[in-house]
Amino acid sequence: MNRIRKHNYTSKRNASTSKSGYYRSRYSIEYLATLMILVLLIISLVVMFTDKKSKAAVHTIAETSTSLNTLTIETTPSTIPAYSYHAGTSALSGEPSVDETVPTTTSVENLTPISSIQMLEMDSSALILDNSTPSDVELSSRSNIPNHNDASKSDTLSPSTSSIIVVIDPGHGGIDPGTCSIYKEGLYEKDINLDIGLKLRKMLEDSGISVVMTRETDTLVYKSKTYNYNENILERPRIANKNNATLFISIHVNAFDTKISGGEKYNGTEVYYTNKTHGEYTNKQFAEIMGNAIDAKTDTKYNGIRNKNLGVLRLSNMPALLIETGYLTNKEDHKRLESDEFRADMAEGIYDGTIKILQTIGVL
């Protein structure tokens, strides 16, 4: 009997020990699994942070157009809202194209102005990367441009001007400063673009031509509580299309990476277009007209015209041009772009080009 009891006790003890060992083993496996998940999560976060850091320019941008202390800036990993830079040895092409990548959201707090351009390597989808320089720009062929008398603000324009609508698009704005001066604190592309655009508007309106501005103050074009870079590009041609514009003109300031040897030497004006046809004329012909008019009115170097499939041009239904008025990274161009006289001359050159284009398409 005692032997039976002892056997039963031993069996229970062995069972208890076995069960305890089972639970210890089970808990150990669960612990290890949890630990592995945490390690993988940490590695993923480190990889994501490193990836974002490698693809983005190091920058802070001025908060001038909203009362929010904290903004949620929506941008693609390869799209930098603050600059017009290309990586490598390429020239810059101003406004980037859109819809190349899916946006991600980044929270930015206490945005402050920047005084210099800082750049890391960028993905080519952001700014239409190529390996060309300003010397590769097409020079205008004056022979295939329709002849018209020089436009002048004193000219008596046709009464049909009431049906003409010109959309002026001063690039960037608000918390997106565009190219930032490396020579003078607080000089931003967005302000130069707007000043030239407003001067141009007055000249056109004085001639009886209706003008729509994509922005007329230092604000974002796409109104929302979050800054969506792609939407701020898309909204510009949307405004032109909605207003059934006759002509779309986007105004910008260029830049070149001064870390590259000789980068600060690049200067001058360029006119960008896309391969579209409007009636019997092409955007290329309109770009030639505009470029030659600007060249005649300003003392800056004229680099010619360039064919680029930029978002604001590609998505506009009417003749559309993007004008790079100079290089803010070049000291001579910098002096010009600071000057009210040069900005007025640039606006007058764009005005003359606009009038000649309108005459060419037969609405004046």
Q: Could you please describe the fold and organization of this structure?
A:
- The structure is a single chain.
- The protein is α/β, with parallel strands linked by helices.
- The chain has 2 domains: 1-55; 134-360, Zn-dependent exopeptidases (Aminopeptidase, 3-Layer(aba) Sandwich).
- Helices cover 37% and strands 15% of the residues.
- The protein contains 7 helices and 11 strands.
- The strands form 3 sheets. It has a 6-stranded mixed beta sheet, with helices on both faces. Strands 2-1-5 form a 3-stranded mixed beta sheet.
- Helix 2 (189-206) packs across helix 7 (340-360) and helix 4 packs antiparallel against helix 7 (340-360).
- The longest helix is centred in the N-terminal third of the chain and has 54 residues, at 2-55.
- The radius of gyration is 29 Å and the shape is globular.
- The N and C termini lie far apart (121 Å).
- Residues 52-133 and 140-149 have low confidence and may be disordered.
Q: What number of domains?
A: 2
- Going by CATH, the architecture of the largest domain would be 3-Layer(aba) Sandwich
Provide the gyration radius in Å. Answer: 29 Å
For the biggest sheet, the summary is: 6 strands, mixed
CATH topology of the largest domain: Aminopeptidase
Provide the succession of SSEs: HEEEHEEHEEEEHEHEHH
Query: Low-confidence stretches at least 5 residues in length (pLDDT < 50)?
Result: 52-133, 140-149
- Biggest sheet strand order reads 4-3-6-11-7-10
Which structural class do the helices and strands define?
A: alpha/beta
What's the N-to-C terminus distance?
Answer: 121 Å
Average pLDDT works out at: 74
Structural shape: globular
CATH uppermost class of the largest domain: Alpha Beta
